[in-house]
Amino acid sequence: MTDKVTELVSKCLQARDLAYCPYSRFPVGAALLTADGAIVTGCNVENASYGLTVCAERTAIQRAVAEGHRQFTAIAVTCDIKDRFVGPCGACRQVLMEFGSNWTVYLTKPDGTYKETHLHELLPLAFSPEHLAKN
C-alpha cells in the first residue's frame, strides 16, 4: 500500500467517526484524492426528513468542489460492516461519475483492510456529461 493510499484509507475511517446518523445509526466515511494530491473528506449527514440526508461520498464531493477541486483520482469509503466490502449507493456512483469514470475506489472495512476496484466497474454503461455533449 502506498503512503497516499494509507492516508486516504485512514482519513475515510476518521470521517466515518464524525458521521451524523441518529436515525439509521449507520456511519459512513469517505475520503477523495484530488488530481493535485489533496485529500478531502466527508461523512453522512442525516435529517429527520429522510430524503434530505446526504451520503458521505456526496458530502466529500460537494466539499471538494466548494474548495475548487474538479479532478479526482481515487476515493476510499467505509462503514461499520465488518464481514464484507460495501460500495457507494447508486446515487453516489452517479455523482462520482460526473467527474470522470477513471477513479480508483477503495472499499474499506472498519479494520482498514480494503478492496481496490474502479468506478467504471461499479457503474457500467453510465450516463455521463459526454452524453449531453453529443446533443
From TrEMBL:
Entry binding sites for Zn(2+): C55, C89, C92
InterPro entries cross-referenced by the UniProt entry: APOBEC/CMP_deaminase_Zn-bd, CMP_dCMP_dom, Cyt/Deoxycyt_deaminase, Cyt_deam_tetra, Cytidine_deaminase-like
A GO-annotated cellular component: cytosol
Binding site for substrate: N44, V45, E46, N47, A48, S49, Y50
CDD domains linked: cytidine_deaminase (cd01283)
Superkingdom as given in the UniProt entry: Eukaryota
PANTHER family per record: CYTIDINE DEAMINASE
Protein name: Cytidine deaminase
Lineage, opening ranks: Eukaryota, Metazoa, Chordata, Craniata, Vertebrata
